[in-house]
Amino acid sequence: MAFKSFDTEREVLCIVRHRNNVKVITSCSNLDFKSLVLEYMPNGCLEKGLYSHNYFGDLSLKQWVSNALPEAVMEVVDANLVTPIDNYLNLDFVTSIMKVALDCCIESLARRTNMKDVIGILWKITIQRLAC
């Protein structure tokens, strides 16, 4: 199961392009070891932002987002993602997506939501959003 999850996550990360994502150059894997080779990050590392308390004044990025959900989601989300017309519906939608993102950042691979399940969850969230 972990092998399929790694392969799926690697494939997704290789094709996803976003200004806040680090490019995956390649991967190395065998039965005992799995690793992604990422593009150089000149301003630090993602691990420090996601998990470390020593670098970012008492809260990691994950804790900051987690603490903001659901009541203060706008403190962590770009305001351009939420339109004034249907503010409540968009906030609920964005909150749901942020919760999925937090599940993808769980340090334990065994507890982390795998990408196949993430796709299903995101489809359900989207369908619910479209139904409203």
From TrEMBL:
InterPro entries: Kinase-like_dom_sf, Ser/Thr_kinase-like. SUPFAM superfamilies: Protein kinase-like (PK-like). This is Serine-threonine/tyrosine-protein kinase catalytic domain-containing protein. It comes from Datura stramonium. The lineage of its organism: Eukaryota, Viridiplantae, Streptophyta, Embryophyta, Tracheophyta.
